[in-house]
Design goal:
Blueprint (H helix, E strand, L loop, with lengths): L4 E5 L6 H15 L6 E5 L5 H7 L7 E5 L16 H4 L5 E4 L2 H7 L3 H13 L3 E6 L11 H9 L4 H8 L11 E5 L13 H17 L9 E4 L7 H5 L6 E4 L6 H16 L2
Parallel strand pairs: 1-2, 1-8, 2-3, 3-4, 4-5, 5-6, 6-7, 7-8
Helix pairs in contact: 1-10, 5-7
The chain binds phosphoenolpyruvate (PEP).
Length: 265
Amino acid sequence: MIHPIVVGNWKMHNNYAGSVLLAKEVARYSEKIKHIDIVLAPPSIFVYPIYESLRARPSNLYLGVQNMMWENEGAYTGEISSIMVRGIAEYVILGHSERAKFFGETNEQVNKKIKNCLKNHLNCIVCIGEYDKYDLEDDYERELTRMKSDKGILSGLKERLTGLSAEDLENVSIAYEPVWAIGTGNNASGMYAGAIASIIKEFLHKELGISSSCRVLYGGSVDDKNAREFAAQTSIDGLLVGGESLNALRFAKICKIVSEVKSGR
Ligand code: PEP
């Protein structure tokens, strides 16, 4: 059975005191939220103090970072590596669209990062998403072809996952994040996100030989009002939450909704 997951991507927000407080508040709420994994991805400088301040955290609450380098060490000013992360955080978000938009990150670089991350026994959350909405209702087959063509989400995903075995991918989750929905308040509909999550799963299974246990998350303007719509989709195994993860109560509500819907309670 796939274990649902909700990830909070704090991006470059908050200061030291605010970050530790936010993490503590989420930890307090998480104690009562069962049946899902919850991951907090603060700015990397705050991961260690949060790790220290949450020594007695609930067993379903994990820490993550928002990016890392593909080498273990070296002359890479400003970067952190997976061997630095290991032992402090369990997850790494890789290939977020903001990394491509602001830093020119390529699929090839994301692929190298995933490989390094897995070699060092970290779990990856690999993001993928289109810039312009697919029009599945107008012509499903045409849009499926577009997804598989150059610059389509499926060909992008294939490039990101090149050279990885089905076994490697046991520790990879895919975050489907349409770029037009990130930080815009213009979330995808549950049906649209569910349809694409299911296309991604089929692609992973049929074309890349990856088992159906690979989690596919949705991300893009998720809040406590629309979370149920996404959680209700059988193809969506969790959520990647940006803006709303900066508010402990609302983030906890989203986690609770996913827990309730997925466990049928
Ligand atoms: C994100 O950062 O991946 C994200 C989905 O952000 P938001 O929830 O703010 O749209």
